[in-house]
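This section describes the prediction task in plain terms. A model, or a person checking by hand, is given the sequence of a single protein chain and must write out its three-dimensional structure as a string of tokens. No templates, partner chains or ligands are provided. The sample shown here is typical of the held-out split.
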Amino acid sequence: MRCGSKCFLVEYEVNGEKQTKSIIARSPVEARKTIRYKYGSEPQILSVREDKRE
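The expected answer:
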């Protein structure tokens, strides 16, 4: 984990299948980039929310 990192829940759709993944990133934009880096331009990202576990 890097300084200033948070946990984000990214909901996306790949091949007609909705998936939710927990991503550690500094911002919602970086969380989206992580998903796009892994799957390419194929996934449709539906939402990015900060995971507030306490």
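For orientation: The chain has a mean pLDDT of 89.
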